[in-house]
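Course assignment 3, question 2. Fill in each field.
Student: A.L.
Task: Predict the tertiary structure for the chain below.
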Amino acid sequence: MVQAVSLESSGPGNGHFNGTSNGQSNMASESPVPVLSTQPTSETNFAITLKDKVVAITGANRGIGLGIAEVCLANNAACVYSLDLSEPSEDFAQLSKRHPGKFKFLQMDVTNEESVKKAVDSIVDAEGAIHGMVCNAGMTKHQPALDFSMAQVEQLFRLNVFGVWTCATAAARKFIELGVKGSIVFTASMTSYRPNRAAPSAPYGGTKAAVRNMAHTLAMEWAPHGIRVNSISPGFVRTAMTYFVDQTPDWDLKMKYYGGMPRLALPQELGGAYVYLLSETASYTTGIDIPIAGIVGAW
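Answer field:
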């Protein structure tokens, strides 16, 4: 059990601060130092669980988002919503069948402010609350910088940055309205730290750097409301967008000299970090980024 820590003391030899050479304290005896207690309150729950939590995940019909949803449901989330523009995949249907009534789909365009607001309102109308928003929807395009058209660059920023902004602000407004100390988690990328030599995309890396920085600033602004904002930076994850990465002829050679885990991650391997950040266990964790890359992530 954690013990209370007291800074109050009296008499010589007991740790009382003595600021003079003649044994007289320069601290007024009538003003005792307050006791600092690290004793948790009776309401504190240190279990990493999403029990009773309603979580929305953008782009969860497939890929990383679906993997996050699976791990959230495995950790007792009351309900998980996939907010996606595309229709649900077969994998979505299978996961929904395994969790009847707990994994739901709302069609939503993350780049459309009214669409996002409507989806968040619909969740609250149906479930009575919303506690977590995972801003995960995004896209990439890997090619040399000089091959990008401005339209392609704008598309990446519109979805990966503006979409995250729209969903985060909509969630924060709803949290404040409901008095919920909610959690917002962004999916950033290891390319927000350094270039991806295996599959370069300067615009994509720029979008993810913007997302990671945005998380820090929003965390600072919304901390007075009890809203936490964090991000996660995956490395290479096995999805429809990255299936080719470990099929290149020089993959084994790169891994030999780079070190780390010489494989792609499964989407579900990211889920534990999202669950932690969405849970009450992370109640004092905000404004951070968690890299999950097996060291191999981006080089």
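Instructor remarks: The chain has two domains: 1-39, 54-292. The radius of gyration is 24 Å.
Grade: pending
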